[in-house]
Design brief:
By secondary structure, the protein is of the alpha/beta class. It has six helices and six strands. The strands form two sheets. Strands 3-4-5-6 form a four-stranded parallel beta sheet. A two-stranded antiparallel ribbon has the order 1-2. α3 packs parallel to α4 (134-140) and α5 (150-162) packs across α6 (164-171). The two termini are 35 Å apart.
Length: 174
């Protein structure tokens, strides 16, 4: 269906965790044999939605696991209906290298509860002194870059204004 269904009763067919059919009402015949034997779950008064995405999470692993880990953050996200979270680079050490980005991505795959997508720092150590290698970060799995400090953003903008070739390269994050 092309338009969203709001405040209406529909039948949703699921199999192995995937949406496989929609029917406008209980009177509409099921279009697949799998749905004829489906278990029915009453969702009257509830919202049925696809998984949510949180683009700004603080998972703190590595280095600050006493605050949050990829596993505890992923469990909390899944419990709240989130299927994807993007983790900020405010870890210890700061996620500013391809190696650390790859390590975070690997740990997220190991946990496996939700998709965890690393966001890398805009500058080394988030200090605003030296820009990171964005191409290497992207290749390692970073989906975005973030300036934890105003100094990092200032350096980024100054560098891009002085180096138009680098600006066009970074504009598409790669």
């Amino acid at each position: 269906r092309d338009e969203p269904v709001a405040d209406s009763a529909i039948e949703i067919g699921m199999a192995l965790g995937f949406l496989i059919d929609l029917a406008e009402s209980e009177a509409e015949p099921w279009r697949t044999k799998a749905l004829e034997a489906a278990v029915r779950i009453g969702a009257t008064g509830l919202v049925v939605a696809p998984g949510f995405i949180d683009i700004h999470t603080h998972l703190r692993e590595p280095g600050q696991e006493h605050k949050e880990t990829i596993a505890t953050g992923a469990r909390a996200a899944a419990a709240g209906g989130f299927t994807t979270v993007c983790c900020m680079p405010n870890t210890t050490p700061v996620n500013d290298s391809a190696e650390l980005t790859a390590r975070i991505a690997a740990r997220a795959r190991e946990v496996g509860l939700v998709r965890v997508l690393p966001i890398a720092a805009i500058s080394r150590g988030s200090r605003g002194e030296e820009l990171c290698d964005y191409h290497a970060l992207k290749a390692a799995g970073a989906v975005a870059i973030s300036a934890a400090t105003g100094a990092g953003l200032d350096l980024f903008l100054r560098t891009l204004s002085r180096e138009p070739t680098r600006a066009s390269s970074v504009a598409g994050f790669g």
